[in-house]
Design brief:
Shape of chain A: globular
Structural class of chain B: alpha+beta
Strand order of the largest sheet of chain A: 1-14-13-17-15-16
Largest sheet of chain A: 6 strands, mixed
Strand content of chain B: 5-15%
CATH topology of the domain at 123-285 in chain A: Rossmann fold
Order of helices and strands of chain B: HHHHEHHEEHEEHHEEE
CATH architecture of the largest domain in chain B: 2-Layer Sandwich
Helix content of chain B: 25-40%
Number of helices of chain B: 9
Largest sheet of chain B: 2 strands, antiparallel
Oligomer: heterodimer
CATH class of the domain at 123-285 in chain A: Alpha Beta
Strand order of the largest sheet of chain B: 1-4
CATH architecture of the domain at 123-285 in chain A: 3-Layer(aba) Sandwich
CATH class of the largest domain in chain B: Alpha Beta
Number of domains of chain B: 2
Radius of gyration of chain B: 27 Å
CATH superfamily of the domain at 123-285 in chain A: NADH-ubiquinone oxidoreductase 51kDa subunit
Number of strands of chain A: 17
Chain lengths: ~450, ~280
């Protein structure tokens, strides 16, 4: 029914357009970060069940060796991103402020960091199931931030037929240029990954959504697009949160994902350009997901850069490699400024889902006093999923969480922060909803 | 207007009223459910706060439990000794005995002893702060000190001390458990007052890493395990854990060599309050 609808809007409804600040790094080619002295690999760095450590202190690991095995279907293994010796398997600071079991590896300074000799499977000769299995063993997760295991996405249930793959090159978060540079510097790898995905899913239509503020990425992706495949590069209006998969599906295919549903409910699968490239990498180098592109940016860091960073590099080392913090640096955020999380401990490592590190200065994070809601309705016009943040906010401030879930769809909120961004009374709506959902989860767990 | 219209209206509406009134009267007679009148009497004597500390859904449910003999008046933690005697006398039952229970905070890391790694700016509630890099305190398990528990407490039993730690006034605490639910770090627990040996720490780190974050952290050194009677204390997940099924064997000797003071022998109140709460009943 939808397949015949060959139109796209190039836009979704509502949303906001915050200042982009991408010029700090959008022109800088990706370069490689030298290996740090120590790598810390938390077992929980993907959505789903944490991995299970399989090494012990004293073990020697080569680059690409598995150090933690997947624990269940919605879980992925974790691999050493540098050769060295395991020094500890224990608690280590995590980006979210907690302590999490992590494998610590003292990197061998004399190692050539060459991976072990390995067989690289030729995917053209493999059955789709075997390709998915290879992706699973490679520990590939969505690199757009949520870190959802890619092999699960590549195994849609049989009753959900797919007719399109949407590749997410929006990168709507301000400051970040990770996906942007991926498309400019490695477009062939992205297209290679797209080809593999089409084979796995048996889908012959691919749409790549790229916001119009990345003309060089659009051009490079068009130049390198394979002629034999139906891969369409779609320039999209610049609007946040277009990189959220449900918004992107609306923008490129004019299909609405139902409340509580997934894009596969409307016959679509959405994959970030970085994840697509790492699928390709498995069949190009045979290496699992052990490094990723991270944008280190913001005016609070001396030398902003787009870097290929071994997963497990401490944020401290990463910031040092970028010249360190300026004197007026105030806040370090993992991810973009809209949805990212503040970091309090620089010992926390870069993870598979870390898209960027943004350092804001004093002047960038002006403190605002919360004032009463004046019912202007700006938040309703901003909310991309058509909730009523104003009413939800009132409930949240009065701890009436059950009504938020039952009557006002707080679980459809993706915490994009548009409502907080537009609120003239500076009510931290998104933060209120995040806390409400934590409280709801807690009461559900104890009930 | 024709006077007969008014008469008609009065008659019709009056007739409808009488008919339904009669139906209600009939229903009241035929469908009446007999309820023990002592329930209402007992409810009048109970505090009426519906705090839930007795384990029942509210004061009325507790009163029903009393009548059915499932509960004893002492199960109410909120009406004091006199109130318990009044209810017992009214119902002609034993008052029963219950050890007073209070909320205990399993963290002693006030701002004077705990390392602060980040500076949280934003909505001043623990729940909101906990979502931002854990709230800025270096110890991820520790108390954030932003008053969520004090706000949740119906009985004003919790006040914040000078170092941002909530102080529970045992005399006012009814053990209702609202603070247990309010704390995003799960630091409160309801304990009987006769359990004196308390490990005031939840940090899972061991040794120096734990002490680096907080001067009063449990470092899992194991001295208390050796000092206490066998089997009373064990080290589990980086913490000394007291086995309260052996509560009668506990004694203050266990805390003597604790290097950080994480384990304490507490007779009554946990920390010194900044000020005595208003309307205090403490004797």
């Amino acid at each position: 029914m939808f397949g015949t609808l060959k139109m796209h809007l190039g836009r979704f409804r509502h949303g906001v357009h915050p200042p982009e600040h991408k010029a700090l790094t959008s022109h800088l080619p990706v370069r490689r970060l030298p290996f740090p002295d120590e790598i810390v690999l938390p077992v929980r760095q993907h959505a789903g069940k944490p991995a299970r450590p399989i090494v012990k202190p004293g073990d020697r690991v080569e680059r690409g060796d598995m150090v933690a095995a997947a624990d269940g279907w919605v879980s992925v293994p974790i691999h050493a991103s540098a050769a060295g010796t395991v020094t500890d398997v224990g608690l280590w600071p995590h980006q979210d402020g907690s302590y999490e079991t992590a494998v610590r590896i003292a990197v061998d300074p004399n190692s050539a960091q060459a991976p072990r000799a390995r067989l690289i499977p030729a995917w053209e000769g493999l059955a789709p199931k075997a390709i998915v299995e290879a992706v699973r063993h490679g520990g590939v997760v969505g690199l757009g931030g949520a870190a959802f295991p890619t092999h699960v996405k590549l195994s849609p249930p049989e009753d959900k037929p797919l007719d399109a793959i949407v590749i997410n090159g929006c990168e709507c978060e301000p400051y970040l240029t990770t996906d942007h540079r991926m498309m400019v510097d490695y477009p062939d790898r992205v297209h290679h990954g797209i080809r593999i995905m089409m084979r796995v899913l048996g889908v012959d239509r691919v749409l790549v959504g790229i916001e119009k503020n990345k003309p060089d990425a659009i051009e490079r992706m068009r130049e390198t697009a394979p002629k034999d495949l139906d891969v369409e590069i779609l320039p999209l209006r610049v609007r946040y949160p277009q990189g959220a998969e449900k918004m992107l599906v609306e923008a490129v295919l004019a299909r609405e994902v139902p409340s509580g549903g997934l894009p596969m409910d409307v016959g679509v699968i959405v994959q970030n350009v970085g994840s697509v490239a790492s699928i390709a990498e498995i069949f190009e180098t045979g290496l699992p997901l052990i490094e990723r592109v991270v944008t280190v940016t913001g005016r609070g860091v001396k030398k902003p850069a787009n870097l290929i960073v071994p997963v497990g590099t401490k944020i401290r080392d990463l910031l040092e490699a970028c010249g360190g913090l300026t004197d007026d640096a105030r806040e370090v955020v993992s991810g973009g400024p809209m949805m990212g999380a503040a970091i309090a401990n620089f010992d926390a490592p870069v993870m598979k889902g870390t898209t960027g590190i943004v350092v804001l200065r004093d002047v960038d994070c002006e403190e605002r006093t919360q004032m009463p809601c004046i019912r202007c309705g700006h938040c309703l016009d901003a909310c991309p999923v058509f909730l009523n943040p104003q009413v939800l906010g009132k409930f949240a401030m009065n701890s009436r969480y059950d009504e938020m879930a039952d009557d006002h769809h707080v679980w459809d909120c993706m915490l994009c922060g548009c409502c907080s961004y537009v609120c003239p009374s500076h009510i931290p709506l998104s933060q209120l909803f995040a806390a409400s959902r934590t409280a709801l989860r807690k009461s559900k767990a104890t009930a | 207007m024709n006077p007969s219209d008014i008469l008609a209206a009065v008659l019709v509406l009056g007739g409808v009223g009488l008919t339904f009134g009669g139906l209600i009267a009939l229903a009241n007679k035929r469908l009446k459910v007999w309820e023990d009148p002592r329930i209402d009497g007992a409810v009048d004597l109970l505090p009426g706060t519906n705090c839930g500390a007795c384990g029942y859904a509210g004061c009325r449910a507790f009163a029903e439990g009393l009548i059915q003999g499932e509960a004893q008046p002492a199960g109410c933690t909120n009406m004091g000794e006199d109130g318990i005697q009044d209810v017992a006398a009214f119902l002609g039952v034993e008052a029963g005995a219950a050890v007073k229970r209070v909320a205990r905070l399993l963290c002693a890391g006030g701002s004077n002893v705990a390392l602060q790694r980040g500076d949280y700016h934003g909505r001043r509630t623990c729940a909101a702060a906990a979502a931002v890099a854990g709230g800025g305190k270096a110890c991820t398990w520790g108390c954030l000190g932003l008053d969520d528990c004090a706000d949740a407490c119906t009985f004003d039993a919790i006040t914040m001390d000078a170092h941002g730690l909530p102080v529970v006034a045992p005399a006012l605490c009814t053990a209702c458990g609202d603070c247990v639910d309010a704390c995003p770090k799960d630091l409160f627990t309801i304990m009987p007052l006769d359990q004196h040996l308390i490990v005031q720490c939840k940090s899972m780190l061991e040794g120096d890493p734990a002490e680096d974050l907080c001067q009063v952290a449990c470092t899992a050194c194991g001295r208390c395990v050796d000092d206490a009677k066998p089997g009373v204390i064990a080290i589990l997940g980086g913490l000394a854990v007291v086995d309260y099924s052996k509560n009668d064997k506990t004694g203050p000797e266990a805390i003597q060599r604790c290097p950080t003071g994480a384990i304490q022998w507490i007779e009554y109140a946990q920390f010194a309050p900044a000020r005595e709460p208003a309307g205090s009943l403490s004797s």
